[in-house]
Write a structure and sequence with these properties.
Elements: H1 2-98, H2 101-113, E1 122-127, H3 128-141, H4 143-147, E2 151-155, E3 161-166, E4 172-176, H5 177-196
Parallel strand pairs: 1-2
Antiparallel strand pairs: 1-3, 3-4
């Protein structure tokens, strides 16, 4: 009977060891599966994060490039505006130089000789400064037109140059430095733009 008990105990031990070995094998297998899942999930997350980072970098690059292009356009427009303003100012200055002193008297005489208006209904408007300096000479050069009714008046709203205006205020021809420069600008701008922005 002792042998039977011993065999029974050995059998129980063997079954326990076999069961424990199976459980251990299963635990190791489950742990390996879980480890594979964790590694696979980690790889997927790493790939997604890298992809997201690449997309964000590409988006930032596009945004930076767009900002740089906009800044470049802004600089070009500012430069063009500044150059155009400077050239406009130079044009007005140069026209102003031509519309003073003896040049102004010659220009007035030439324009009056074109018969753009009827002298009896017209007044010649000049700046107060030029009127004081050139009244005698203008009167001498335009004596015949003055006899027909042309009036010469100093006005505050003409700085350089002159106007031929209807006495009733219905219209005028503006030969001021700014008006002349504005008339010339469209003809100069394309040539200037081609040189400056080539």
């Amino acid at each position: 009977m002792a042998q039977q008990i011993q065999d029974l105990v050995a059998s129980i031990q063997k079954e326990g060891i076999d069961k424990a070995n199976k459980q251990a094998t299963q635990i190791i297998s489950d742990a390996n599966e879980r480890a594979k899942e964790i590694v696979s999930t980690a790889k997927k997350e790493a790939i997604k994060k890298i992809s997201d980072a690449d997309k964000e970098i590409a988006l930032r690059d596009q945004s930076a490039q767009a900002s740089l292009q906009q800044a470049s356009r802004d600089v070009q427009l500012s430069l063009r505006k500044a150059i155009s303003k400077q050239l406009d100012s130079l044009l007005v200055d140069k026209a102003g130089e031509a519309f003073t002193g003896q040049n102004l008297v010659k220009l007035i005489k030439t324009v009056i000789s074109l018969d753009l208006t009827d002298s009896s209904t017209t007044e010649l408007q000049v700046s107060e400064k030029e009127f004081k300096a050139l009244a005698a000479e203008i009167t001498k050069e335009l004596g015949a037109e003055i006899k027909k009714g042309l009036e010469i008046k100093p006005v505050k709203n003409v700085n350089v140059g002159f106007r031929l205006a209807e006495k009733d205020g219905s219209g005028y021809f503006d030969f001021s430095d700014e008006a002349t420069a504005n008339l010339m600008k469209p003809f100069l701008s394309p040539a200037i733009a081609e040189i400056v922005f080539k």
